[in-house]
Amino acid sequence: KLMEDEEDRGATFRSVIGFCEPGQEPLTFTGTVEGKIDFEEKGTGGFGYDPIFEYNGKTFGEWGDEEKNKVSHRRRAIDRFLEWLERQSN
Q1: b/e per residue, 6-26, with b = 16+ CB within 10 A?
Q2: CB 14 within 8 A of CB 34
Q3: In which band, very low, low, confident or very high, does the pLDDT at 2 lie, cut at 50, 70 and 90?
Q4: Which of 15, 54, 55, 67 could form a disulfide with 38 if both were Cys (CB 3.0 to 4.6 A apart)?
Q5: What is the pLDDT of residues 40-74, one digit of tens each?
Q6: How open is the CA angle 27-28-34, to the nearest 5 degrees?
């Protein structure tokens, strides 16, 4: 209802993972998903804003957990952290 008259419905989900070792500077790894706020709730999955956050034509509430987790902002942040961690061990 708060966005009823809004034309710009662009939205971003963002997660950040922080990592710090003693004596080192903290590092952050950000994951984002660009989408928009739908005009109505759709789907019964997920939680929070998932039923109104539209990505690639469907709200996250319409996606199954497995499908959503492949593109989620959390997954993207974790993937960036894991890529960095793997480079550190090489």
Answers
A1: eeeeebebebebeeeeeeeee
A2: no
A3: confident
A4: 54
A5: 999 988 888 999 999 999 999 999 889 999 999 99
A6: 165
> Is the pLDDT at 17 greater than 90, yes or no?
yes
pLDDT for the residue numbered 46: 85
C-alpha separations of 16 from 24, 45, 47, 57, 84 in Å? 18, 23, 19, 25, 14
Q: What is the DSSP string of 16-70?
A: EEEE--TTS--EEEEEEEEEEE-SS---S-SSTTTTTEEETTEEGGGS-HHHHHH
pTM across the whole model: 0.83
Q: Please name the helix (run of DSSP H) or strand (run of DSSP E) that holds residue 83, with its range, or none.
A: helix 73-89
